[in-house]
Amino acid sequence: MANSVSAYVLIKTDVGRTGDVLNDILRLRNISHATSVAGDYDIVVEVTGKTVEDISSMVLNEIHKIPNIRETKTLMGTKYVAK
Fold first, then answer.
1. DSSP 3-state helix, strand, coil percentages of the chain (rounded to 5)?
2. Helix (H, G, I), strand (E, B) or coil at 72
3. Of 25, 44, 73, 80, which is most buried, counting CB atoms within 10 Å of its CB?
4. Across the chain, what does the average pLDDT equal?
5. How far apart (Å, rounded) are the C-alpha atoms in residues 24 and 63?
6. How far apart are CA 41 and CA 23, in angstroms?
7. CA distance 72 to 50
């Protein structure tokens, strides 16, 4: 997406519900990548939008409404560097 911003959303889910949450996330718009991970969080999602406000709105109004999410942490991208 040209002239876009991105963020990474780290998600903790209820025990045993990571697959359900991941499937729900993959149905949302503006999701570039989503994967389950091992560690302090259960899922990492890359979200893109035209503005920081687009991403904030998506996290608050769409991701936070998904059942079985216990906690999120959003890491807003500040600069994109391609190899």
1. 25, 35, 35
2. strand
3. 25
4. 92
5. 9
6. 16
7. 21
Q: Would you mind telling me the total number of residues written for the chain in this entry?
A: 83
Residue spans per domain, the chain: 5-76
Question: Does the pLDDT value for residue 1 go beyond 60?
Answer: no
pTM (two decimals): 0.89
**Bridging pattern class, strands 5-13 and 69-76:** antiparallel
Q: Report how far residue 68's alpha carbon sits from residue 55's, in angstroms, rounded to the nearest whole number.
A: 21
Please identify, in words, the CATH class of the domain defined by 5-76: alpha beta
Q: Could you give the CA distance from residue 12 to residue 25 in angstroms, rounded to a whole number?
A: 13
Burial class of residue 9 (count of CB atoms within 10 Å of its CB; 0-12, 13-18, 19+): buried
